[in-house]
């Protein structure tokens, strides 16, 4: 039976982390949850643990890329077959996790599936600021040309990988523009990715 893990990077998310963990446990009950507390100065770790998550605590803040990589190292060390990234701020709706998993399993060539705000029903959800959307379009055009496939939401951190993706991101995960650079890493290592429509929510806190 597959081992499934949700990786939740979090920094000072005491106001949102309990709801995020509960959302995953309720809507993706086959998934274990690990919260990577990236040097929070509040009680994010304690709240996450009480909500039912395993917790990794960094002694100081190293950034989203380092936090996500710690989650993938945890997944690799413990033999997980599938890992999904879910932001700790409540923006990602865990009801879509089964859809990501279904898509990942529908094609044995796929190694990663990302949730996109900019296709299908996702377009009716939270879209962020106009300036940020402009930057996303620029990244989208560049990455689509490089990879030879449509990359509509390159900054989405709501993504699921198989074991090969776990192994890749446990070894190295980008730190400067992690979501965008991770798409390039995947392409460079000849892994295959796809997108599914999801609706994003505004950050809880």
Give a short account of the largest sheet: 7 strands, mixed
The number of helical runs is 7
Shape: globular
Percentage of helical residues?
25-40%
> For the largest beta sheet, what order do the strands appear in spatially?
3-2-1-4-6-5-7
The parts where pLDDT drops under 50 for at least 5 residues are none
Strand content: 15-25%
What is the gyration radius calculated from CA atoms? 16 Å
Task: Give the gist of this structure.
The protein is of the alpha/beta class and 205 residues long.
Describe what you observe in this structure.
It is built from 7 helices and 7 strands; from the N terminus they run βαβαβαβαβαβααβ. The chain starts with a strand and ends in an 8-residue tail after the last strand. The protein is 40% helix and 18% strand. The model has no long low-confidence stretch (mean pLDDT 91). The chain has 205 residues and is α/β, with parallel strands linked by helices.
């Amino acid at each position: 039976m597959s081992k499934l893990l949700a990786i939740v990077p979090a920094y000072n998310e005491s106001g949102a982390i309990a709801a995020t963990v509960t959302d995953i446990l309720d809507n993706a009950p086959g998934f274990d949850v690990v919260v990577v507390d990236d040097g929070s100065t509040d009680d994010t770790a304690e709240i996450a643990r009480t909500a039912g998550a395993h917790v990794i605590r960094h002694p100081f803040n190293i950034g989203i890329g380092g936090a996500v990589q710690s989650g993938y190292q945890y997944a690799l060390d413990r033999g997980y077959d599938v890992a999904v990234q879910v932001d700790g701020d409540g923006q990602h709706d865990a009801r879509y996790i089964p859809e990501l998993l279904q898509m990942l399993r529908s094609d044995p060539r796929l190694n990663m599936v990302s949730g996109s705000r900019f296709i299908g029903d996702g377009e009716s959800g939270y879209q962020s600021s106009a300036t940020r959307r402009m930057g996303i379009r620029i990244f989208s055009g560049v990455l689509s040309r490089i990879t030879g496939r449509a990359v509509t939401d390159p900054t989405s951190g709501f993504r699921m990988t198989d074991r090969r993706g776990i192994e890749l991101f446990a070894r190295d995960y980008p730190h400067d523009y992690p979501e965008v650079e991770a798409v390039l890493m995947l392409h460079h290592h000849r892994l295959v990715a796809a997108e599914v429509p999801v609706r994003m929510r505004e950050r809880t806190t």
